[in-house]
Design a protein that fits this description.
16% strand; single chain; Rossmann fold; 3 strands; alpha/beta; globular; 103 residues
């Protein structure tokens, strides 16, 4: 997985993201959270949350409909430690407000 693009954000975006993670960390001190990563791609969001959040109170459900990309997501999950793997559920599905099959 190529994570170079994670460091190319401008200063304003980095500041926004850090505040978001600071808020989530505050919530995690009080509650267990479930994070839905819709359009998970290769796991960039998992990478960010793994580094910035307390995993003992966070479960991540990652959804990626493209099977070729989903395989990369599986490979990334395999690089995590056992505790983190147990808190991440991978789903090879699309998420929509419409219940239909797409060919």
């Amino acid at each position: 997985m190529n994570l170079k693009h994670l460091t190319t954000y401008n200063k304003e975006t980095i500041f926004h993201r850090l505040n978001k993670f600071k808020t989530l960390n505050l919530l995690l001190k009080k509650k267990k959270l479930v994070f839905f990563d819709v359009g998970a791609n290769e796991g960039q969001s998992i990478f960010q949350y793994k580094k910035l959040l307390n995993y003992k109170k966070l479960n991540v459900h990652s959804c990626e409909p493209n099977f070729e990309i989903f395989k990369e997501l599986i490979n990334y999950k395999e690089t995590l430690d056992k505790k983190q793997k147990n808190q991440i559920e991978l789903n090879n599905v699309a998420v929509s407000d419409v219940n239909t099959n797409i060919l």
